[in-house]
Write a structure and sequence with these properties.
Elements: H1 2-15, E1 23-24, E2 30-38, E3 41-59, E4 65-71, E5 74-85, E6 95-104, E7 107-108, E8 110-113, E9 123-128, E10 134-137, E11 141-149, E12 152-159, E13 170-176
Antiparallel strand pairs: 1-7, 2-3, 3-4, 3-5, 5-6, 6-9, 8-11, 9-10, 11-12, 12-13
């Protein structure tokens, strides 16, 4: 009788799904966008997952950093925050912030801090009519990604020492990957 109970308990533990070793293979692009309005400002946020790509970080002749996506063997995840004044006469009142990071192979649970952030090529870009526009490598902060289901990931990014005028220093989202068009 004891062996039946112990075997049942062992089988129960073996059948439990642990996310510790889960991973996701990204097979197609993912895109989500939300739009809202606050205090006469239109705000849009979007997340995009691009398989078979890589991040090329370059500087122009003025030393301003920029990102170009290229074909590659990595998965790139891209976040864009944009605020624009509703009043069209305010030409220079907008702000755009981008966050880029990339993974080799399947996406797995990962937790990084500070200088480790270079492992995923974590970059933040800020764009607007102000000094300091451009793209910068993030070297202080944290990044956590957890595979929470077969095709689901949860991402948490904290930019601890943002360059001047970075508005979004904390990002958190859950992404459903590999959805079909009818979902």
């Amino acid at each position: 009788m004891k062996s039946i109970i112990l075997t049942s308990i062992l089988l129960l533990f073996m059948s439990c799904n642990s996310t510790k070793d889960m991973q996701v293979q990204v097979k197609k692009n993912y895109f989500s966008k939300t739009v809202s309005q606050e205090n006469n400002t239109k705000i849009s946020e979007k997340w995009q997952v691009v398989p078979n790509a890589s991040i090329n970080f370059e500087k122009d002749k003025f030393g301003i950093g920029m990102v170009k996506l290229a074909k590659g063997n990595k998965t790139v995840i891209y976040y864009k925050y944009e605020s624009r004044p509703v009043d069209k006469s305010m030409m220079d009142g907008g702000y755009v912030q981008d966050v880029f990071f990339e993974f080799e192979g399947d996406i797995k649970n990962i937790s990084l801090k500070d200088k480790q952030l270079s492992q995923i090529n974590l970059l933040v870009g800020k764009h607007g009519f102000f000094r300091g526009s451009g793209v910068y490598a993030v070297t202080s902060g944290s990044f956590d990604l957890e595979v929470t289901g077969q095709d689901q990931i949860e991402i948490d990014v904290n930019i601890a020492k943002p360059n001047e005028m970075v508005q979004k220093t904390h990002l958190h989202t859950t992404i459903e990957l590999n959805q079909t068009d009818d979902e």
